[in-house]
């Protein structure tokens, strides 16, 4: 018989060591599962796991997106919308504003958005208290959870340089059904030998019903690009932002001048013989503005209905109106409207209103709205005379008078 334990001492546990370890392991496992369940509930996925979302075909379609995500079924039959409902729920838990790292463009400019000083928020049209906000990027939480897939782009902004392509892409990214690459891929003009698998891997993940987009303005003037894009998909939708070719040429020169201050004057580059008034078509700043000649190549591979020509001037003057045309062309619900913009008088460009909670708008980079050098009026008139026949042909081909010859 064992002797009694000394008074005041604790009794020695006879529980086996292995059982104690098992209990601790079980407790840790339960804690982990509970944490995972809480995370899923925060993402509202626990609602989707309990059963499918059910609607009625013919009468219960999602507002503004008829037919999207509807599975096969006859009239009056219950139809499941799991992907659409899941994406909508995930979108409801994203209070943070959109922030993207700076992307270096091919022309050397930083393509990311910059923040405006707080004082602009109170200006007319600013995003003060109670104003509308720009939507945050869709599907962020879904993509973190591994949902979605990378697709080849269904729509591409193919041109033109210094026409307003960056503004168009950033405005479109406000739409919850648009996902786009930030930097210019330059696949169809410089990296085509790397193959479509490489190109697809550059694209962002998309959820069901979303459109994948990219923009590379040099495609419009690249001879091989139309055939290459057509070989990828004949159904690709193409957007071209066009601008008065004379103003575009001066803007192009201004950008080059900011990087190379020692280049010759605009006048000496624009003319082969200034005295005779012979315009140098070989200079890229002039050649890009011959829109009709470039368009002829694209129409050999794509029907006119698959190209949309966006007015760069109207994109500045009435961004919501021009974005309405673009959303219709892409088959998107008209979500981007006047409430998303305010006009920055200092830059001379429209800006997007910041996400709710920030109270500050964001605009295109500092290089946008850069002042142009003084160009002799006679030089500009000669260039307008040079472009006039090309512009008129372009108006006929597109069925739209852009008013550059007034």
TrEMBL record:
Bridged cysteine pairs (disulfide): 351-363
This protein's UniProt keywords: Disulfide bond, Glycoprotein, Golgi apparatus, Membrane, Signal-anchor, Transferase, Transmembrane, Transmembrane helix
Chief location category: Golgi
Subcellular localization(s) per the UniProt record: Golgi apparatus membrane
Residues that bind 3'-phosphoadenylyl sulfate: 162-166, 243, 251, 368-372
A GO CC term assigned to this protein in UniProt: Golgi membrane
Membrane topology: Single-pass type II membrane protein
Stretches the record annotates as Disordered: 115-140
Record-annotated active site: 162
Protein family according to the UniProt entry: Belongs to the sulfotransferase 1 family.
EC top class, as a word: transferase
Pfam families listed in its UniProt record: Sulfotransfer_1
Organism of provenance: Monodon monoceros
Name recorded for this polypeptide: Sulfotransferase
EC number(s) stated in the UniProt entry for this protein: 2.8.2.-
Domain (Sulfotransferase): residue spans on this chain: 153-393
């Amino acid at each position: 018989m064992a002797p009694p334990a000394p008074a005041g001492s604790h009794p020695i546990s006879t529980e086996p060591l292995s059982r104690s370890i098992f209990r601790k392991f079980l407790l840790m496992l339960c804690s982990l599962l509970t944490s995972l369940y809480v995370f899923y509930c925060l993402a509202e996925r626990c609602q989707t796991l309990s059963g499918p979302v059910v609607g009625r075909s013919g009468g219960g379609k999602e507002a503004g997106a008829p037919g999207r995500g509807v599975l096969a079924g006859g009239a009056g039959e219950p139809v499941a919308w799991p992907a659409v409902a899941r994406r909508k729920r995930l979108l409801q838990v994203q209070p943070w504003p959109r922030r993207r790292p700076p992307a270096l463009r091919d022309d050397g400019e930083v393509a990311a958005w910059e923040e405006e000083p707080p004082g602009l928020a109170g200006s007319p049209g600013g995003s003060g208290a109670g104003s509308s906000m720009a939507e945050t990027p869709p599907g962020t939480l879904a993509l973190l959870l591994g949902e979605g897939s990378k697709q080849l782009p269904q729509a591409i902004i193919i041109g033109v340089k210094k026409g307003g392509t960056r503004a168009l892409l950033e405005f479109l990214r406000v739409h919850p059904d648009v996902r786009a690459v930030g930097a210019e891929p330059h696949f169809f003009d410089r990296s085509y030998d790397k193959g479509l698998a490489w190109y697809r891997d550059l694209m962002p993940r998309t959820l069901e019903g979303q459109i994948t987009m990219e923009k590379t303005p040099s495609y419009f003037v690249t001879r091989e690009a139309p055939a290459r894009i057509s070989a990828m998909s004949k159904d690709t939708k193409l957007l071209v932002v066009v601008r008065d070719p004379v103003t575009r040429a001066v803007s192009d020169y201004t950008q080059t001048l900011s990087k190379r201050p020692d280049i010759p004057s605009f006048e000496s580059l624009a003319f082969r013989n200034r005295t005779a008034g012979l315009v140098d078509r070989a200079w890229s700043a002039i050649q890009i503005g011959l829109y009709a000649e470039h368009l002829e190549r694209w129409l050999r591979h794509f029907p006119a209905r698959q190209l949309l020509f966006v007015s760069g001037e109207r994109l500045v003057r009435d961004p919501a109106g021009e974005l309405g045309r673009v959303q219709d062309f892409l088959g998107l619900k008209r979500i981007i409207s006047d409430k998303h913009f305010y006009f920055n008088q200092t830059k001379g460009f429209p800006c997007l209103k910041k996400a709710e909670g920030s109270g500050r708008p964001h605009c295109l980079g500092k290089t946008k709205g850069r002042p142009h050098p003084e160009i002799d009026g006679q030089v500009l008139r000669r260039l307008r005379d040079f472009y006039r026949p090309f512009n008129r042909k372009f108006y006929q081909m597109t069925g739209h008078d852009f008013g550059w010859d007034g």
